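G., the chain you wanted modeled:
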Amino acid sequence: MKNPNFALVTGASQGLGRVFARALASRGQNVILVARSRDKLESLANELRQSQSVIAEVIEFDLAAPLAGSRLAQQVHDRNLPVNLLVNNAGFGVRGEFQALTLQRQMEMVRLNNDAVVELTYSLLPSLMEHSQAGIINVSSAAGFQPIPYASLYSATKSFLTNFSLGLQEELRSSKVSVVTLCPGRILADSHGGKAKNGNRKFGFVYQAPEDVVREALESLANGGGLVIPGFVNKLSVIAQRLIPRRAVPALVAKMSRQ
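Predicted structure as tokens:
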């Protein structure tokens, strides 16, 4: 019997990663769940096995470590787990003045948000291209469309990821690998029960449920991939900032983002 295919989801223990895993499993997709929190991963894996009757593999892994993406790809290969969908979801942001934040923490962010994505994608791409239908979903952010003072390096990592992903999409256009570049804005946090919360906060209308974000990403994947900016407000903000002189954007954003 031919080995079943898997979707590899990084950052699967919480947030969008957990929602991606549930949504994919509900579609009958076997999953490889990757994060640092083994207990959370095992709990989710058991849930998916019981509720969706899929194969759910767990890999406890720190993708912020040097060369983590390449080493994770090697583990997947050694365990003979064929991947036909890669969801590069793991990431985090730090907020504050660049010089006031520790360099170590900021470099961990760069490694997780950028290095691990590049390494993992590079390592898995040859096998992805062997499938009759495969995909890559890169979870970037609307923050990558403009510089954000007090989150300068975070927005830069997302700008890198967006441009890398869009360029890769064009390179793979003639292949059987579809690429989705997902750029959400503010997302409602998950409660422990997996349902979105925080909807009663001020300006709550700008927050999106993670299930809606994931649904748009998977719809785009089914249609051949592309750039996805979920939500009308987010689309409008991206268009609006393009109409403002480039040199004026950082000052305007700084007024909104200063702590």
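The chain has eight helices and seven strands.

Shout if anything looks off.
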